[in-house]
Amino acid sequence: MCGIAGAYFWPDGGPLTDRLTKILAHRGPDGSGRYDHRAGDGEVHLGHRRLSIVDLTETGAQPMVKDGLALTYNGELYNSPELRKELEAAGVRFRGTSDTEVVLEAWRKWGTEGLHRLRGMFAFGVFDERTGTLTLVRDQLGIKPLFLVRRGKGVAFASELKALATELGGSLTVDDTALVASLLYYWVPDGRCAFSEAEKLPPGSWARFRPNGDVERGSFWSLRQVAEEGAAYEGEFDLNAVIEDSTRKHLMADVPVATFLSGGLDSSYLTALAAREQPGISAYTIGFRAEDAKFEAMPDDLMYAKKVAAKFGVDLHEIEIAPQVLDLLPRMTYHLDEPIGDPAAINSYLICTAAREAGVKVMLSGMGADELFAGYRKHLANTLAVQYQRVPGLVRRPVESLVDRLPVATSKRGFRSVRFAKRFLSFAELPEETAFRRSYTMYDQAELAGLLNPDLAGAVDDVITEHADTYHDNTLSDFVNRMCLADSRLFLPGLNLAYTDRSSMAASTEVRTPFVDIEVVKAAFRIPGDKKIVKRQGKMALKEAALSILPAEIVHRPKGLFSAPLRAWMSRDLAPLVREVTNEGELVKAGFLRREALQKLVDEDASGQQDRSKHLWHILTLEYWYRGAVAARTT
């Protein structure tokens, strides 16, 4: 795992590439390099920061230049051994053992036609000295990031937006619609970027830039197509075997590998499989201050993590999180690149930091299983909402009135079941796509519009329409798999993979996600929705597969949350900051957010009648991000 950057036909592209690469040093502290080439009336520069994981020698150094091709590559290729054998049989002679060289030679032999054969996570730039073209590529599922800015014939690119924003900030403008989207979702969806002049290369796509300024774009993998092909699949397969194979491939490394272990199904399943391949493997788990966990009514995940570790001989490391939130909040906002309001990023960062200090460079995460196998509460809740709509109104109305009056917390503790009930009733009677959006986003359309400057009403409409267009962009007849597909296109790359990449790389640690694998994804969409949610139990197909190795106590335990005690933090650590941002924040001063609407959120949360802690947390992250964006433009 590494950091990549470069400049193509860009004025002073060499010094720019050096500066971009330097900002990415945390992604690759083990080495750096730069490639330079004159191409007609312009120059090409590729930069690289290396985190050495496979082939620790100089034969794995980058940018890698060989026989007229130059490659700067960020990622891991899990079918590298198979492709290497195939290429060797075709006469290719390799200098080292890195997967970087396999990618380079695969490109030479197959070009864009071979991209669908790559199984892994990757983003790379490859320059062809013969044609003078630069091609940028991003993996099928958007695990690895790639940002770019175009200017005339020129292109500047980097693994992280912060690098481009720092160096080009004076010429970049904040995209108000992207910030509106972040308020709705609490992240910026992958189809948008926080700066108008920048873009994210879409998952499963490539872009080729030519010396004459022409740009060619293409895609080599479609998640929608995979889901639709899966719906037509009529054969049988062994899901456990698919996941076991993926886990085995994700353990490939020349350095120690560890796992996240929350004690939940996904991390326990992967840890058990990994321990079978590598006995004595290390795992890391988190806990919170007892008073915070009690206030948030959080389950005792640590108890289950200990049971899994004992059963499979795992070396478990326990980390209690009692962070200095006021210090971590601006630091994490910087590292996350765009405004992302999920406090789980802090958990990932602190776990990866502890692992890195212990000498671990690579960790396995259970990310992606909930999206693919219908494991979130929203999936079950939306199926229950269909049934709830059949209940007579004379029964529904008294229930709704009672729930509305119940508090979500007192001064000493929170009531999780009441929070869930209020959330459920906020979308239970809505049409399918609207209900699904409302079940996991922050506001309904009217609430979002009321929070913002009235001039942004059009942006609200655009964001809502984009969600509907994405949700309906398929021919699936299966309600549950429609939700899984929408999650895999929106929620997974825009939030979970994004914060996992940035928070782990901030600690110079690589996180691998065996569930987010093209073969596992294919298998997941071959499973009909009625096999994923069965008798009010989500993720049943995965649970049945996991029973081949895990005890039922772990497989069927209540779902935990990889989150943080937000209500406790808001009422204690962050209360002064919330007041400051509400009254004197830059977003309020700029007229983007309305002070009275913010104050209403604060009052509702303080009264205990509504849980607005996630809303307020994201507003804090958005405020800090905006301050950084304003500072970048003025330096």
Structural features, described:
The protein has 635 residues and is of the alpha+beta class. Among the domains are: 2-221, Aminohydrolase, N-terminal nucleophile (Ntn) domain (Glutamine Phosphoribosylpyrophosphate, subunit 1, domain 1, 4-Layer Sandwich); 225-374 and 484-555, 3-Layer(aba) Sandwich (Rossmann fold), CATH 3.40.50.620. The chain is 48% helix and 16% strand. The strands form three sheets. It has a six-stranded antiparallel beta sheet. Strands 4-5-6-7-11-12 form a six-stranded antiparallel beta sheet, with helices on one face. A five-stranded parallel beta sheet has the order 15-14-13-16-17, with helices on both faces. Helix 12 crosses helix 20 (479-506) and helix 26 (575-584) runs antiparallel to helix 28 (595-607). Pathway: Amino-acid biosynthesis; L-asparagine biosynthesis; L-asparagine from L-aspartate (L-Gln route): step 1/1. The active site is at 2 (for gatase activity). ATP binds at residues 286, 365-366. It comes from Amycolatopsis azurea DSM 43854.
Give the helix/strand layout.
Blueprint: E1 2-8, H1 13-23, E2 31-39, E3 42-50, E4 64-66, E5 69-77, H2 80-89, H3 99-110, E6 120-128, E7 133-138, E8 147-151, E9 154-158, H4 161-168, H5 176-185, E10 198-200, E11 205-209, E12 215-219, H6 223-231, H7 239-250, E13 257-260, H8 265-277, E14 282-288, H9 290-296, H10 301-312, E15 315-321, H11 325-335, H12 344-357, E16 362-364, H13 369-373, H14 377-388, H15 393-405, H16 416-425, H17 432-440, H18 445-451, H19 457-472, H20 479-506, E17 510-512, H21 518-524, H22 529-532, H23 540-546, H24 552-555, H25 566-571, H26 575-584, H27 586-589, H28 595-607, H29 613-634
Parallel strand pairs: 13-14, 13-16, 14-15, 16-17
Antiparallel strand pairs: 1-3, 1-9, 2-3, 4-5, 5-6, 6-7, 7-11, 8-9, 8-10, 11-12
Helix pairs in contact: 1-4, 2-3, 5-19, 7-8, 7-21, 8-10, 11-29, 12-20, 14-17, 26-28
